[in-house]
């Protein structure tokens, strides 16, 4: 069991948990993820490592309640524990002194972007952060991002905070004004990452994105997370999660992310039968 | 031959095919004591037992069966356990028709002795008994076992018995390897596997789940920082192969590993009471002809699929699956399309699988191995309408560990290189099971785990008493 040390509500239906998992904290690197399973019946939920503290042995995760399993996770409180917590998974981000790097975060994507931005700055890159959300209520970790970046731009779709516009609008303005950066990294909803990649392609800027494909084991054993990168099949959990955004088949990813839509709705409608998962419900 | 031999094996009691095709309870119910005693009588207790030559771990078959005849089941179990740590498992899943029973002398003119069924009977008898724990005095040496499949389980048990302190690391949340996530409940009840794991714990083996060696600690860190004196790698062959056909990433195309893991390990058969979903489909095609394919097909039926097809490019005689599983699949209504090779997946605009395009094959000239090679028949393409396809054409080794251990020698397929004692290119590191041989069998993996345990013991004892 892995204890929840602290819980914060960052925005409506977005939570930050610090979880006690010393072995994961010891090895965690920016860009990696964990898989959490709440209880015996639980689904394995992949979540990015948003932060870690090797001294206290804790790993921070930030998640949005997207459906049944993340809602169930969100019902826990500080002091509760999750049954399983495995990681660090995936290949860490390539962190280096690269000149200017622009880190684009959409929605909950701020959480995974934050540690990468921080490490990039420590490595000596000039880090420009662009964070966007639908509205003011959904903005979080602006303070952390300010610290992690040399420059930070914030935007909201509806203009309820700082300015109105999409992250791509801010990105284009910056590039037009300052010229091409060494790299752009975009993390957020698939359509947002696709939009960023399409735009940077025009400018010929190297762009990395972090994919959120549907996963089961996260160890390369099932192939659920497969994605086409430059015509080749890759497994996001062991080959990624970061890939060259100009090579990702976003249409396929979007289609694959909808694979369980009807089951997901069904899960939201039911409440537990109490079989405890060991029950042979079909028997 | 003086004695009159009953020509056929005593039949195994089974759940009715119509009933069992809709539940996950075990199909084969096991011999009663009466049946076991009667079947044991069929064994001739040969002086030169051919059957043993077919068993990868040389279980002393005539001796254990002789104990069964005398109703001394615990004695029988002791005999089996000298070389096979998991009789309740192997009795169920060994491909006996290609191993022990293939060589049984009775099988020359009649059906062979049902060695597997007797072994299962003995194993099950012991499952309900408290295991005797005999342990040597503690040596002070620490051994890490990576992977908790049959290879790791067998290696851990032997090393613990020899007095070493054993810690097992498992990537998933439940130990057992393929025995838990791959082979379905209706063929191998999970309670049996968990009972064996409980026994290991009673022997003092520590099991760390959610621990991926290579990610949480490298092999070198285990040896240099975490104080392990030796390591056994039993990481299996977990990476699913795909056929690289067009359309393979349509929604509805699964690897058998994913389909079976969702159903077995994640209990998707009880979705939505359990949280992990699975797409069952009305019409399901399974690509391949081995045990994995049979398990996937029969699982799909149980989850409610209406038509389930096995698509296999060779003929029935070449099916690599255990004979019993093929028969069970047929009885339950799985439809076999032999000499049929998939060529492409067909899908809808929205990305959903709608069919599997196949081409008919015929047997051509014998190839170098003497087998007649299937060749495509021109113009015989057709589309099998299916909404789910499950690819079960094999698995390769998982690279998570080898990737982070560059000085560990592997072959070009990524399998770890180990000699017949399990020794790898790295000092103190041993390996066995599917990660060395490629996908094979439970008994071979277990056998390799035990051989490695002996080598590890010799290696550690060669260092003299443990110094702190
Ligand atoms: C590497 C990685 C890192 C991630 N990091 C974060 C993060 O830091 N914060 C965050 O809020 N979310 C993150 N996600 C997404 C998160 O895993 C999903 O939102 C969650 O699994 C949804 O589960 P659910 O049952 O609540 O919702 P559901 O209703 O089941 O699904 C909602 C949507 O989430 C996606 N999804 C469903 N099941 C899975 C699954 N098993 N694995 C991945 N995606 C799935 C599907 O596209 C689906 O349409 C990450 C995903 C991956 C693969
Ligand atoms: C569906 C299916 C049906 C089968 N049916 C039969 C049958 O009827 N009869 C038969 O004899 N054989 C059968 N087999 C084959 C048999 O199960 C395997 O040969 C056997 O399980 C191999 O054992 P193993 O210990 O080498 O590896 P596995 O059983 O594969 O176990 C390896 C374990 O190591 C873990 N692991 C991997 N990497 C790491 C890491 N880096 N750190 C920590 N843990 C790690 C994995 O999660 C896994 O639990 C079947 C296989 C499948 C998939
Ligand atoms: S272990 Fe397998 S091959 Fe050996 S005797 Fe038992 S059933 Fe036969
Ligand atoms: S070969 Fe057959 S008859 Fe002879 S000992 Fe073995 S099982 Fe018995
Ligand atoms: S999640 Fe199973 S292979 Fe990636
Ligand atoms: Mg879900």
UniProtKB/TrEMBL annotation, chain A:
Its cofactor is [2Fe-2S] cluster. Its EC number is 1.8.1.-. The keyword ATP-binding does not apply. Keywords: 2Fe-2S, Iron, Iron-sulfur, Metal-binding, Oxidoreductase. CDD domains: DHOD_e_trans_like1. It is an enzyme of class 1 (oxidoreductase). It comes from the Bacteria. Binds 1 [2Fe-2S] cluster per subunit. One of its GO terms (molecular function) is 2 iron, 2 sulfur cluster binding. One of its GO terms (biological process) is pyrimidine nucleotide biosynthetic process. [2Fe-2S] cluster binds at residues 222, 225, 237. Residues 1-95 form the FAD-binding FR-type domain. Gene3D superfamilies: Nucleotide-binding domain of ferredoxin-NADP reductase (FNR) module, Translation factors. The keyword Oxidoreductase applies. This is Sulfide dehydrogenase (Flavoprotein) subunit SudB. It comes from Desulforamulus reducens (strain ATCC BAA-1160 / DSM 100696 / MI-1).
UniProtKB/TrEMBL annotation, chain B:
SUPFAM superfamilies: alpha-helical ferredoxin, Nucleotide-binding domain. Pfam families: Fer4_20 (PF14691), Pyr_redox_2 (PF07992). Residues 20-129 form the Dihydroprymidine dehydrogenase domain. InterPro entries: DPD_II (IPR028261), FAD/NAD-bd_sf (IPR036188), FAD/NAD-binding_dom (IPR023753), Helical_ferredxn (IPR009051), SudA-like (IPR006004). The keyword Nucleotide-binding does not apply. Gene3D superfamilies: Alpha-helical ferredoxin (1.10.1060.10), FAD/NAD(P)-binding domain (3.50.50.60), NAD(P)-binding Rossmann-like Domain (3.40.50.720). Keywords: Oxidoreductase. GO terms for molecular function: iron-sulfur cluster binding; oxidoreductase activity. Residues 141-449 form the FAD/NAD(P)-binding domain. Its EC number is 1.8.1.-. The keyword Oxidoreductase applies. PANTHER family: GLUTAMATE SYNTHASE [NADPH] SMALL CHAIN, GLUTAMATE SYNTHASE [NADPH] SMALL CHAIN-RELATED. NCBIfam families: gltA (TIGR01316). This is Sulfide dehydrogenase (Flavoprotein) subunit SudA.
């Amino acid at each position: 069991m892995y204890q929840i040390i602290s819980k914060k509500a960052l925005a409506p239906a977005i939570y930050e948990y610090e979880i006690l998992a010393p072995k994961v904290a010891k090895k965690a690197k920016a860009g990696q993820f964990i898989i959490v399973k709440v209880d015996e019946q639980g689904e394995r939920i992949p979540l990015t490592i948003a932060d870690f503290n090797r001294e206290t042995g804790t790993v921070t995760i930030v998640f949005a309640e997207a459906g049944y399993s993340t809602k169930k996770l969100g019902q826990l409180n500080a002091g509760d524990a999750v049954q399983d917590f495995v990681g660090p998974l995936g290949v860490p981000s390539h962190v280096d002194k690269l000149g200017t790097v622009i880190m684009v975060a959409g929605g909950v994507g701020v959480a995974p972007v934050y540690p990468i931005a921080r490490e990039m700055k420590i490595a000596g890159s000039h880090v420009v952060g662009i964070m966007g959300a639908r509205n003011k209520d959904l903005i979080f970790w602006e303070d952390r991002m300010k610290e992690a970046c040399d420059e930070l731009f914030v935007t909201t779709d509806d203009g309820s905070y700082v300015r109105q516009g999409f992250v791509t609008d801010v990105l284009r303005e910056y590039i037009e004004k300052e010229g091409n950066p060494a790299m752009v990294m975009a993390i957020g909803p698939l359509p947002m990452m696709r939009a960023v990649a399409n735009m940077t392609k025009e400018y010929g800027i190297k762009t990395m994105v972090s994919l959120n494909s549907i996963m089961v084991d996260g160890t390369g054993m099932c192939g659920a997370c497969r994605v086409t990168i430059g015509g080749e099949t890759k497994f996001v959990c062991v080959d990624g999660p970061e890939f060259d955004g100009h090579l990702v088949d976003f249409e396929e990813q979007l289609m694959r992310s909808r694979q369980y839509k009807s089951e997901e709705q069904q899960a939201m409608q039911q409440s537990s039968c109490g079989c405890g998962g060991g029950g042979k419900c079909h028997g | 031959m003086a004695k009159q031999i009953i020509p056929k094996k005593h039949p195994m009691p089974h759940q009715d095919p119509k009933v069992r095709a809709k539940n996950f309870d075990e199909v084969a119910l096991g011999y009663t004591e009466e049946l076991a005693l009667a079947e044991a009588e069929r064994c001739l207790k040969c002086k030169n037992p051919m059957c043993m030559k077919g068993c990868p771990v040389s279980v002393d078959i005539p001796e254990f069966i002789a104990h069964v005849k005398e109703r001394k089941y615990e004695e029988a179990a002791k005999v089996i356990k000298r070389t096979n740590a998991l009789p309740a498992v192997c009795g169920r899943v060994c491909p006996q028709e290609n191993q022990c029973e293939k060589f049984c002398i009775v099988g020359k003119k009649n059906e062979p002795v049902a060695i597997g069924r007797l072994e299962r009977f003995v194993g099950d008898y012991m499952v309900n008994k408290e295991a005797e724990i005999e342990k040597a005095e503690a040596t002070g040496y620490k051994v890490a076992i990576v992977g908790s499949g049959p290879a790791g389980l067998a290696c851990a048990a032997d090393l613990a018995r020899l007095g070493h302190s054993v810690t097992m690391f498992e990537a998933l949340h439940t130990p057992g390897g393929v025995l838990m996530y791959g082979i379905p409940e209706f063929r191998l009840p999970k309670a049996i596997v968990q009972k064996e794991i409980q026994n290991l714990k009673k022997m003092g083996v520590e099991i760390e789940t959610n621990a991926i060696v290579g990610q949480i600690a490298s092999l070198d860190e285990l040896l240099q920082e975490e104080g392990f004196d030796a390591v056994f790698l039993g990481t299996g062959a977990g990476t699913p192969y795909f056929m690289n056909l067009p359309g393979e990433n349509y929604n509805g195309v699964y690897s058998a590993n994913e389909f079976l893991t969702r159903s077995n390990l994640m209990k998707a058969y009880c979705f939505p009471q359990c949280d992990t979903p699975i797409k069952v489909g009305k019409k399901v095609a399974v690509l391949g002809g081995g045990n994995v394919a049979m398990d996937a097909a029969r699982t799909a039926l149980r989850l409610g699929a209406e038509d389930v097809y096995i698509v296999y490019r060779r003929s029935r005689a070449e099916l690599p699956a255990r004979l019993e599983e093929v028969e069970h699949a047929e009885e339950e209504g799985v439809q076999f399309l032999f000499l049929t090779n998939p060529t492409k997946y067909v899908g809808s605009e929205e990305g959903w699988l709608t069919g599997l395009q196949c081409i008919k094959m015929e047997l051509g000239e014998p190839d170098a191995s003497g087998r007649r090679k299937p060749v495509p028949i021109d113009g015989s393409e057709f589309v099998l309408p299916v909404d789910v396809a499950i690819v079960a054409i094999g698995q390769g080794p998982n690279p998570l560990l080898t990737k982070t251990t560059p000085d560990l020698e592997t072959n070009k397929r990524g399998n770890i290189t180990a000699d017949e004692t399990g020794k790898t290119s790295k000092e103190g590191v041993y390996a066995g099971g599917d990660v060395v041989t490629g996908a094979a069998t439970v008994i071979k993996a277990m056998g390799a785990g035990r051989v490695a345990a002996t080598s590890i013991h010799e290696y550690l004892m060669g260092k003299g008493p443990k110094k702190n």
